[in-house]
Specification:
mainly alpha, elongated
């Protein structure tokens, strides 16, 4: 990561924020099964719609 190369406090804080940004949705889906199911349904609907548009 950039923070390990730069070794500056700001780079380290930015790196931590990036990691939190990516882990938060996973935590939400792990604790809220209904949210996970809804997101999966939306993904399926979107992919089906995209296949329809490509015809």
């Amino acid at each position: 990561m950039l923070s390990s190369v730069l070794n500056e406090k700001r780079a380290i804080h930015v790196n931590i924020q990036i990691m939190r940004t990516y882990t938060k949705p996973r935590e939400l889906m792990a604790t809220h099964k209904d949210l996970k199911q809804t997101i999966e349904q939306l993904k399926n609907m979107t992919s089906s719609f995209m296949l329809y548009l490509k015809r």
